[in-house]
């Protein structure tokens, strides 16, 4: 099959994405507006009959350094994409036209994140692994389920010259999109089933919040500074690098302009004070708990638990098939400060999910090597 890759309009891109039951929020056209340091392009895959069979949001970032006319070079990044038939026996015929197009745009390296699930571990398996002192990493624990087709995709990529990137952050947290996430399946389950699947601590905390009179309300653009103040406090407490307020304001403007429910903000109030807040993203049947924030004050009223349950309730009402709590660590070492986050997410009764990870194709090996050296020194 002969396939061509070329730019498409935002409307063409969005129509294709929204026709699918599941696609990442990093692959909708509006996501490019959230990243001002990158130049976004909507790409389309067309078959011989001219039918659109795939899309990709490509983000182009220039090489650091002085601008030289005619010599600008870019890192091309397709986070959690492109949206193509990854199980196609002709996978090379889908990826090679993309590489040629991006080479013509000045890309020296192409990075992508195939939305392909490799393994899953149910909550009981993860909980037992955390308690096992011999278990060091989630990847070493026998999975509840494994998709051999994912291994075939990985083999095909290696055969084409793609290289799997290694996570640059602590505990398996990559600089790009997370390879390991935690998800709660919603499809075919009632809200009572979902609440019953939460562990005892989660159910107790939700009950405490309800008894204490915590009220969760949806916020708007004007409430983002309140969220950000809590988020900054959370970042200092949990030792992660926070994003500035304008980032979330751009996100709100871009995503809600595309769809009014693409991004939601939730605020938990107790005695007229906002104690916790969170951001929820939705694309099709996939809902993400994207950012959470809370104060250290009055933690006994469990405001964060109230926010989570409200978001899960609303996600179920929207017809979500998956409630995604995003990245988790793959380390099971008791000394890791990220292990507490994993324990928290395991309490939902969901499952740990491993994706294929991110992959690079060096179009210019010298610049690709220079990029890796630059990233290693950051």
TrEMBL record:
<dbReference type="Pfam" id="PF02388">
    <property type="entry name" value="FemAB"/>
</dbReference>
<keyword id="KW-0133">Cell shape</keyword>
<dbReference type="InterPro" id="IPR003447">
    <property type="entry name" value="FEMABX"/>
</dbReference>
<keyword id="KW-0808">Transferase</keyword>
<keyword id="KW-0961">Cell wall biogenesis/degradation</keyword>
<protein>
    <submittedName>
        <fullName>Peptidoglycan bridge formation protein FemAB</fullName>
    </submittedName>
</protein>
<keyword id="KW-0012">Acyltransferase</keyword>
<dbReference type="InterPro" id="IPR050644">
    <property type="entry name" value="PG_Glycine_Bridge_Synth"/>
</dbReference>
<keyword id="KW-0573">Peptidoglycan synthesis</keyword>
<dbReference type="InterPro" id="IPR016181">
    <property type="entry name" value="Acyl_CoA_acyltransferase"/>
</dbReference>
<comment type="similarity">
    <text>Belongs to the FemABX family.</text>
</comment>
């Amino acid at each position: 099959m002969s396939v061509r890759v070329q730019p498409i309009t935002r409307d063409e891109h969005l129509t294709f994405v929204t026709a699918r039951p599941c696609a990442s929020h990093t692959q909708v056209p509006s996501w490019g507006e959230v990243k001002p340091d990158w130049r976004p392009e909507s790409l389309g895959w067309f078959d011989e009959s001219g039918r659109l069979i795939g899309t990709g949001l490509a983000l182009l970032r220039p090489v650091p350094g002085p601008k030289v006319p005619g010599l600008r070079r870019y890192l091309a990044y397709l986070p959690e994409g492109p949206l193509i038939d990854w199980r196609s026996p002709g996978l090379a015929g889908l990826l090679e036209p993309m590489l040629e197009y991006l080479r013509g745009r000045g890309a020296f390296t192409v990075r992508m994140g195939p939305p392909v699930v490799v393994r899953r571990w149910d909550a009981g398996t993860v909980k037992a692994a955390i308690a096992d002192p011999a278990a060091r990493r989630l990847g070493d624990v026998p999975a509840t389920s494994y998709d051999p087709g994912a291994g075939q995709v990985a083999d095909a990529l290696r055969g084409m010259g793609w290289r799997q990137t290694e996570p640059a952050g602590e505990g398996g947290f990559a600089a790009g999109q997370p390879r390991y996430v935690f998800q709660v399946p919603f499809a075919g389950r009632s809200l009572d089933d979902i609440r019953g699947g939460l562990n005892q601590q989660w159910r107790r905390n939700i009950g405490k919040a309800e008894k204490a009179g915590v009220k969760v309300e949806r916020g708007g653009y004007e409430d983002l500074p309140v969220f950000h103040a809590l988020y900054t406090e959370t970042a200092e407490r949990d030792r992660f690098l926070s994003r500035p307020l304008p980032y979330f304001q751009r996100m709100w403007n871009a995503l809600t302009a595309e769809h009014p429910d693409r991004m939601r903000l939730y605020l938990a109030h107790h005695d007229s004070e906002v104690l916790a807040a969170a951001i929820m993203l939705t694309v099709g049947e996939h809902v993400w708990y994207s950012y959470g924030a809370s104060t250290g004050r009055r933690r006994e009223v469990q405001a964060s638990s109230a926010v989570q349950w409200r978001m899960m309730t609303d996600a179920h009402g929207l017809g979500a098939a998956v409630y995604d709590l995003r990245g988790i660590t793959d380390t099971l070492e008791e000394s890791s400060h990220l292990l507490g986050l994993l324990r928290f997410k395991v309490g939902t009764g969901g499952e740990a999910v491993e994706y294929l990870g991110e992959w690079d194709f060096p179009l210019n090996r010298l610049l690709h090597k220079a990029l890796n050296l630059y990233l290693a020194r950051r």
